[in-house]
Design goal:
GO molecular function, one term: metal ion binding
Family: Belongs to the SCO1/2 family.
CATH superfamily: Glutaredoxin
Largest sheet: 7 strands, mixed
Protein name: Copper-binding protein
CATH topology: Glutaredoxin
Number of strands: 7
Keywords: Copper, Disulfide bond, Metal-binding
Number of helices: 5
Structural class: alpha/beta
Radius of gyration: 15 Å
Pfam family, one: SCO1-SenC
Amino acid sequence: MTTPVSTQPQGRFSLIDHHGRRVTDEDFRGKFLMVFFGFTHCRQICPAVLRRNTEALDLLGQAARRIRPLYVSVDPERDTPEVMRAFLTSSYPHHTGLTGTPSEVEAAKAAYRVFARRGSDLDEYDVPHTSFTYLMGPDGTYLAHYPDTLSPDELAARVRGRLATPGAPSGPVAATASTASSRGRCCG
């Protein structure tokens, strides 16, 4: 008898935050996590999603205090803690940047079922990757994921609903998450 493998993100990681501290998913227990994977050299989708996520958090008002937004790099060779800190503090100060060794980032990507592949041009390469924002519960369980096409208002409304009923089924958008279907449209 085989045990079924979950297709939902498991949310486990051990990475370095943008202050140079080692953190794991356990360090964030008690908070909802809004997790987005990207890279600081992205010119289009990543800044748009980070801006959208920031605006959605602003729309949530006091409820946003229950959420920790994380920006996980898919480009650890360029996104050092120092680069992440400079990038986030200037435009997205609510977010905590996470990076690590290539193998640590690969493990985090696998835990969230994130697709990312580095391009071949070493000077100005892109990193096509999944562009979903994941919502994890205070206990670390997957609750939902949201496409980059949602407006700040739509995202805020959906997250507000999840904050009110964190254990409820995540609905049709989140039910479609899988490695094959979660490639998103970022950067490639």
